[in-house]
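C-ALPHA CELLS:
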Amino acid sequence: MAWLGGLLLAGHAVPAAAQYASGPTVTIEAASDERRRGLGWSDGDPVLRGTLSVPVAQGFSLDGAATTLWGSDRHGGADAVLDLGATYMKQLGGFRLSAEGRYHLFPGASRADDRDWGYGEVGAIAGFSLGPASIDLGARYAPRQSAIGGDNLYLSGGAAMGIPGTPFTMSGHVGRSSGDVRNPVSAARLRPDGAYWDHGVALDWYQGRWSAGLRYADTDIDAPDTRHAGATLIGRVDFTL
C-alpha cells in the first residue's frame, strides 16, 4: 500500500478556497462512506481523505485528493482513488465561473486482464451568490475511454444557504448521469443501470479550521442487483491546516 504514504500530499478540489488562498491549503477528513453522484465507491465502508490545493496564479490552482477505498468492488478492488487536476476560477460581481480538469487513478485495482482503470474528465461550473445564498449549475464530461466503457456526461444543479446567526449551512443538489455505451461492463462503473438521477441534501457546521456535516444521498436506480446506490446518510468531520 505504497500510496498511503502520499495520502496527505494530494487533495480534492476546493475551488472557492483555491481562488482566494494566499498559500497551499491542506484538509484531512474522515467520513462514514464515500458516495459520488449517488454511487458508493467504498462499498459502504468509512474512508479517510487528504486534500491539497496549491494556488499558482490569480484564480488558478493545482489540486488533488487521496481517498481510501479499502478494496472497492466498483473499481476493481482499488485500495484508494487519487483525483489530480487543476481549477481556474473567475469572480464577476456576484457570479462565479470555473473550469476544471481531473484525472482519477485507482491504486491497487486488479491488473489480471491488463485493464486500465484510470479515467479523466473536464468540467465547467457557473454560480451566483446573493448574501448567504448561492446557486450553482455544472457540467462535467468524461470523453470516450475504455476504462468507463464509453463517455459520461454529468449535469447538476445545486443551492446552498448559510443559516443567519449560526455556523450552519444547508445545501442540496440534483444531478443527471448519461452517456454513450460501448462496453456495458465497463460503463456500469459510473452508470450501473444506464442513465440515472441522483439527489441529496446536507447540513454542515463550520467553526474556525473545523467542519462537520451530515449528508443524505439517493438515486432513482432500482435494479435489484445494484449495491450502494440507494438512500444513505453520511457523516463527516474535517480539519483544515
About this structure: The chain has one domain: 2-240. The domain at 2-240 is CATH 2.40.160.40 (Porin). The first strand starts at residue 25 and ends at 31. The CA atoms of residues 99 and 117 lie 24 Å apart.
